[in-house]
């Protein structure tokens, strides 16, 4: 397979598998009484990772417009998972941070995802295949981090 054929195949695999991956991951992300989207979960994870962060910095980090992020944050504030914190020196700048409930829900979601994923993996795959999935996921994560780092430079 030449270089161009490899690129075509990678593009095809990503495009064709993304909807399925999203569907299965969405099924993993649920808690009783808390309808949360994968985008909202990604936002919670980003805020936990970053700590108190401005809305514009979070939007950039999540590759979203400020308007799109505002809708996501509005929902998370409504559920008491995120709080808005005005900047004391610049009233136009707003920070967001996780509430204690947000930290708790994020922990519960992570535990639920791990539990469901463990069941799904062991229902369909042998241990050697799970090891390969882990190895492949680690490599894909490395590649994504490499591209992200290069794009910031």
Describe this structure in words.
The protein is mostly helical. It contains six helices and three strands; from the N terminus they run ααβααββαα. The chain has helices at residues 3-28, 38-50, 55-61, 66-78, 100-124, 127-152; strands at 53-54, 82-86, 94-98. It has a three-stranded antiparallel beta sheet with strand order 1-3-2. It is globular and about 55 Å long. The mean pLDDT is 89.
Largest sheet: 3 strands, antiparallel
Structural class: mainly alpha
Instruction: Please tell me the total number of domains.
Output: 1
The name of the CATH topology is Arc Repressor Mutant, subunit A
Shape-level CATH architecture: Orthogonal Bundle
Q: What is the average of the pLDDT values?
A: 89
Give the N-to-C terminal Cα separation. 32 Å
Strand content: 5-15%
Short recap of the structure:
The protein has 153 residues and is mostly helical. It has helices spanning 3-28, 38-50, 55-61, 66-78, 100-124, 127-152, and strands at residues 53-54, 82-86, 94-98.
Layout: helices, strands, pairs:
Elements: H1 3-28, H2 38-50, E1 53-54, H3 55-61, H4 66-78, E2 82-86, E3 94-98, H5 100-124, H6 127-152
Antiparallel strand pairs: 1-3, 2-3
Helix pairs in contact: 2-4, 3-4
């Amino acid at each position: 397979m030449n270089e161009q054929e490899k690129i075509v195949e990678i593009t095809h695999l990503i495009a064709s598998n993304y909807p399925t991956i999203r569907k299965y991951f969405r099924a993993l992300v649920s808690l009783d009484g808390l309808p949360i989207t994968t985008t909202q979960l990604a936002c919670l994870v980003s805020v936990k990772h970053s700590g108190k962060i401005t809305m514009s910095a979070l939007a950039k980090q999540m590759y979203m417009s400020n308007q799109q992020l505002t809708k996501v944050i509005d929902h998370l504030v409504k559920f008491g998972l995120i709080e808005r914190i005005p900047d004391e020196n610049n009233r136009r700048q707003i920070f967001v941070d996780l509430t204690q409930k947000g930290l708790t829900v994020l922990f519960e979601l992570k535990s639920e995802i791990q539990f469901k994923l463990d069941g799904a993996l062991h229902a369909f795959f042998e241990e050697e295949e799970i090891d390969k999935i882990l190895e492949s996921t680690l490599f894909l994560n490395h590649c994504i981090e490499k591209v992200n780092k290069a794009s910031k430079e």
